[in-house]
Amino acid sequence: MILTTTPSVEGRPIADYLGIVVGEAILGANVFRDLFAQVTDIIGGRSAAYEKSLAEARDTALRELGERAAALGANAVVGVDLDYEVIGNMLMVSASGTAVRLG
């Protein structure tokens, strides 16, 4: 599955547009509490624990995006966008794009 932020895939014509697909991952309040307990790894204002959790959430959202596109018969997702939102005490990572079938 090709995931790209660009509106097309170089050298590959888009044969079919199959619709918008979205993948989400939510980090709950308990994740933040656990991470604050591990703040000992903060150096220069960065926390490896936070960065690891955010990377895992982003990877989950992108994986779900690809799975949902594949379920539509797509072999690529173009125009991929990542959003981060705080909802109460949770952080949501959302990946969206257009599922396409490349020619």
From TrEMBL:
Domain of life: Bacteria
InterPro entries reported in the protein's UniProt record: UPF0145_dom_sf (IPR035439), UPF0145_YbjQ-like (IPR002765)
Pfam families tied to this protein: YbjQ_1 (PF01906)
Gene3D superfamilies given in the database record: Hypothetical protein apc22750. Chain B (3.30.110.70)
HAMAP family in the record: UPF0145
Family: Belongs to the UPF0145 family.
Name under which the protein is recorded: UPF0145 protein FHG71_15320
Organism: Rubellimicrobium roseum
